[in-house]
Amino acid sequence: MTVNELLKRRVDAAMGRIPCDLLFKNGVFLDVFSGQWRPGEIGVIDGTIIALESGLKAHREIDLKFKKMVPGFIDAHVHIESSCLVPSNFESVVLPKGTTTAICDPHELANVCGLPGIEYFLSSASSMKMDLRVMLSSCVPATHMETNGGGTLACTDLSQLQKHPKVLGLAEMMNVPGVVFNDPEVIKKLAHFSDQSIDGHCPLVRGRELSAYSSTGISTCHESSQLDEAQEKVTKGMKVWIREGSVAKDLKVLVPLLNASTCPSLGFCTDDRNPLDIAHEGHIDHLIRSAIKLGVPSELAYRSASLSVANHYGLDRGVYRKGAIAPGYAADLVILGDEKSCEIVDVWVKGEKVNELTPSPNLLSTAYQTVKATVPESSDLMGPEGRVHVIGVMAGKIITEREVGNSTDRGVARLSVLERYGKGSKPANGYVRGFGENFKGAIASSVGHDSHNLIVVGSDPKEMQVALGALISNQGGFVVVQNQKVLAQLALPIGGLMSQESPKSIEKSLLNLRNASRAVGCGLAEPFLQLAFLSLPVIPSLKLTDKGLVDVEKFQIISVSAA
């Protein structure tokens, strides 16, 4: 059907000349433009809302019995790879939670296999029921201080995909030094995407540096972990996406910023959230109910979860507008049993009831056999002894503390990162505190943001060697080892990041892994994603990549030894 035909049918249905496809009766909907709850009948044709008035006819009528209705939720920034699920399975778990649109950055898979990783998500997005939009990954690799498998994606590479209908712009610009010191390739990317959305990534950046950073057109940040930091970003015209992932949990700190004045500048995102947390806590609905519980008026919470994000990314324009319950907007609707607790009764996406949809196709990826490392000798996993720099894990944060201590201090564990793309490098070794005073065993992962080399924490090199061997055999995933035996594991053979197994199967494996991590004395609630961020050298303060220990503030590799 042409756009002309669509528009004519909308007009005819709104005027009562032809019946609607769907009519919601006896409902109360949230007018996100005024912040008021209003009674009305919602007429829908061809997946679009066309009227709020009574008296229309429809092929199907739904009596809401005065339940409340809000626009579908929009995740402002997400890496689907961190859910361990392929896109179609991700859709199957978040759509029933009310997330009808998501803005994804596929830079995890892109770091593993380059441009085909982004193309896989674009192909998936084109066949999905939820509206999955893609930001083109700006930093592949994230820095020069690590080895990835996808090479370097330059501006010329990204421009090939720029006009794809599912592409919104340039994804999180993590290279803050590259921006403030005018790196030619970074500036070229920013200039090339200057008429599209450009996402930011600038944790703890303040003052003149933040002004320089945002002056280039970078207009969002999801990395704020302090209230005054977020306030400064809003003051400087940036949108702040409040994040509540499986590790990084910033909502409680940032939610006091959300009020009627700031609401257009604030949205919600999950960034990195595993399917166990999605199943047990929720997705964007979890952020909404948490914000309301912390005192945010429900009207503001639901607006931040919909129109605020849609407005920023231009999703409130076009044939199927997003973010509101109004004529001309897509019929992405969430029916609530109770708006205060975000109790979801039904979800509709473009006028179709989610629990009546046929599953989206599960597209095959080419990102198999990407783990090409060989198992190192246990002696290769020994770091320097004596006075050393120690990475201090902060539970619920992906920023880390920097400490100096003795390698044999209680609570200090060994940490190694092994390049996994077949370069033949020996592991880089360091030390970390925060996995538990009584941690005895090893935990390993092929999810090591953002280059996804193999990362392992342990109390003994032999335990760590066994864990790395299991990862390599499984072509990636998560492993827990004790007494040189595998206690629990999950294989993630697609890029070492995802599995085509069902969400329920992956949830079960993750639960077994959590139980096993506790059995080896790990005190972290989510040890695997917490571990994954210890190799991300764009988040302060100390991190370990396959090339060594990184001082993020100095943006350089330093000696592990502190003597």
Characterise this structure.
- There is one protein chain.
- The protein starts with a helix and ends in a 5-residue tail after the last strand.
- It has 563 residues and is of the alpha/beta class.
- The strands form five sheets. Strands 1, 2, 3, 4, 5, 14, 15 and 16 form an eight-stranded mixed sheet that branches. An eight-stranded mixed sheet has the order 18-17-20-19-22-21-23-24. The protein has a five-stranded parallel sheet with strand order 6-7-8-9-10, with helices on both faces.
- Helix content is 26%, strand content 26%.
In summary, what is this structure?
By secondary structure, the protein is an alpha/beta fold.
Q: How many strand segments?
A: 27
Strand content: 25-35%
Major sheet:
8 strands, mixed
Kindly provide the radius of gyration, computed on alpha-carbon positions and rounded to a whole number of angstroms.
Answer: 24 Å
Helical stretch tally: 17
- Which class do the helix and strand fractions yield? alpha/beta
pLDDT average, as an integer? 96
Helix content: 25-40%
Shape descriptor: globular
> What separation lies between the terminal Cα atoms?
72 Å
Parts with pLDDT < 50 across at least 5 consecutive residues: none
